[in-house]
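Reproducibility note. Readers wishing to regenerate the assembly model reported in the main text can use the exact inputs given here. Chain order matters: entities are listed in the order in which they were concatenated for prediction.
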Amino acid sequence: MSDSTIYEVARLAGVSIATVSRALRNTGPVSAATREKVQRAVEQLKFTPSRLGVSLAEGRHAANGIVFPDLSGPYFAEVLLGYEEVAAELGRSVLILSTRDRDGVPATVKDLATRVDGLVVFGQTLSDAMLTELAESGLPTVLLARDAHPGTEAVRSENGGAAEALAVHLIAHGHRAFALAGGHDEGDVSQRWTAVARTLGLHGIPVPRPVECPYTVEGGYEAGLRLLPDNPDVVMCADDQVALGVILAAEELNLKIPGDVAVTGWDDIMAARHARPALTTVRQPLRELGGAAARVLDELIAGVEPTNTTRVLATDLVIRSSCGPHPPAQEEQ
Amino acid sequence: MSDSTIYEVARLAGVSIATVSRALRNTGPVSAATREKVQRAVEQLKFTPSRLGVSLAEGRHAANGIVFPDLSGPYFAEVLLGYEEVAAELGRSVLILSTRDRDGVPATVKDLATRVDGLVVFGQTLSDAMLTELAESGLPTVLLARDAHPGTEAVRSENGGAAEALAVHLIAHGHRAFALAGGHDEGDVSQRWTAVARTLGLHGIPVPRPVECPYTVEGGYEAGLRLLPDNPDVVMCADDQVALGVILAAEELNLKIPGDVAVTGWDDIMAARHARPALTTVRQPLRELGGAAARVLDELIAGVEPTNTTRVLATDLVIRSSCGPHPPAQEEQ
DNA sequence: TTGTACGCGTTATCAT
DNA sequence: ATGATAACGCGTACAA
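Running the prediction on these inputs yields the following C-alpha cells for the assembly.
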C-alpha cells in the first residue's frame, strides 16, 4: 500500500538511513550482522527505493525518451522495439511521445525532456528550431532517419545507393516510364528520389516529379488513382504502405501487376512479403536502427561530446515479383 | 545547459520561490506587476520546473506504464499507439517495458512500478503471483487482452461470439475437417478455441486439438507443415501472423487456398488485407483497446476502487477470400 | 499580496 | 563500521 521509506527500514532495523543505503547499494562497509538486519527489514516492509528520491539524489533519471510522428504502422513499431530492447540492456527506461497534434508539441516535448537523460527524435517530427533549442539546452539528442543537426548525432539507413540499385534493376526490366509516389521534401525520401533522378538521368530517362501523399495505404491508393491512368511502366513508392495502396488502386483499375505496371516499395514491412504480388522493396534494418540510436544516445549521456556525425546502416535490395518477371531462382522470399 | 532552478528565477525576479511557483501555476494571488517580473525571469533563464521536484512535491508521477511481451508485430504497436494517445490527452507520459528475457522481469517491472502512477499489463506477460503483488502494493493496474485479476480492472475484446460466428461461417462453406493452429492455454486464444469447439460439437463435427506454435509467421509456417499433410478443409489460426505462415506452408506444399484448404486468422492486421488470398479474419479494435485501458487506468489513479471488472470491446468478422468462394458482393475489403 | 520554512525520499560527505 | 546532516528541486501550509 503506502510505500515504505528508507527511514522506516532504518528504524525497523535499528540503524541509520545511511547504513541502509550502504547495505542496499554496496557503497561502503557494512558488517555482516547489520546487513542481515537490514535485509530482513527490507523484505518485511517490501521496501523499494523511490525512483524520485534516487533520481533527485543521483542527478539522473536513468530513462530515455523517443519522439515520433503518428504515422504509426509497422515501421515505427519495429524501430521502437529495437530501441527499447537496447535501452533496457543499458538499464534505462523508455518514455514514448507521439506528436500528432501540431499545436501542443513544443510543450509536450519539453515536458518529456524533463523526464529523461536523453532523447531520440525521428526525422521530421520536430522543427529545426526546436532541435536547436534541445541541443543548446544540453540534453543529449540523437536523430533518427535523417542527417545530424548541429549539437546532435544521427542514425539512419542508407538511401542513395539502394535507390540507385533499385532504379538500375527497374531499368534492366525495360521500364522507361517512371512514376514516383510519395512526397519529396522530407529528408529520408528525398535522398532516395534524388538518387533515382540521377540514375534515370544517366540513362536518358525522363525524371518524373514525385506525387505527394500521406505515407499510408490510403495515401498510396489515392496517389495510384492519380498516377496509373498515365500508364507508367513502374510506380516507385516512398514506402511499402504507399505501394500497397497503389496495388489496390491498380486492382481497382483492372491493371495487372507486374504485367501492366510494376510497383516497388521501401522498408520491407511484413505485409510486403505477403502482398499479392509480393512486393519488391528495400529492407531497412529497423530494429538495428533503434538499437543503434539507443547506443549512441548512451554514449552522449555518458559524457561524449556530440560531433554532428551521421551513422549510416546498410540496406538490402529485396527483389520479389512486383517489379517484373524473374527467372524463379532469382526471386527471394 | 545546467537547468536553472526556481531559486534562480526567484532571485532574478526579486521575489521568493513561493511567488514564482504561484505565478507559474496560478495557484494563488499574484500581483500583475510581480507576475510580469517572474515571466521575464523565466524566459531569460529558460526555466522549466524539474519533473523530479514537481513529482516529489505533488506525490505523483503524471506517468503511466505499459508492459507487453516481445511478440512485437503490428498488434502491440497499434494498441500502444491508442494507449499513448489517450494518456497524452489525459496529461500523462507513457513508459514502455517489453518483457523478453524471462529472468529479469520481476525486477524490471518493479523498477517500472516506481516510475509511474499506474500500469497496464498485457495478457500473459506477468505471472498471477506478480499481478497479485502489484495489486496488493496498491498500484493501479489494468489488464489487457485477458480477464480481470483480483484487485485490477481489465479490457479485452470479444472472443467467444466472433469465434462462434466464424466457425458457423466455415461450416456453411461445407468445411468439416477442422484444424487449429496456435497454442490454447493462453487466455485470449483459449476463449476462442473453446467457443469453436462448442460450435463444432453442436454440429456433430469432430473437435481438433490445437497445435501449439509461436504467434509469428515462422511459427505458423511450422504449424502449417505439420497440419496440412492431414488434408484439413480449413485451418483456423490463433492470429493473422500464424495464418500468413500457414499460407506460406500451403504454397510450399502446392496447395491452393481456398481451393484445397481454407485458412482464417485473427486481429485483421494490415498484411491480412493485402495477403494472397486476402485473409478472412476477426477485427479487433486495437487502438480503442489501448485507449480504453488508458481511460480505465486514469479512473483507478483518480481513486476509484478496482472492481475486478472486465470491459469487453466488440469485434467484427471480416470475410475475405481465404475461407472459401463467395459471391462477389459478399466480399469485403 | 508576499515570504518563511518544512516535507517529499534518496545519496553521499564528513564526523565519530 | 556507523550516524548526522546537507544537498537535490519543488509545492504549499502558515505567518506576516
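We highlight two features of this model. Chain B touches chain A through 56 residues (CB under 8 Å). Residues 3, 5-7, 17-18, 21-22, 25, 27-28, 49-58 of chain B lie near DNA strand D (CB under 10 Å from a C1').
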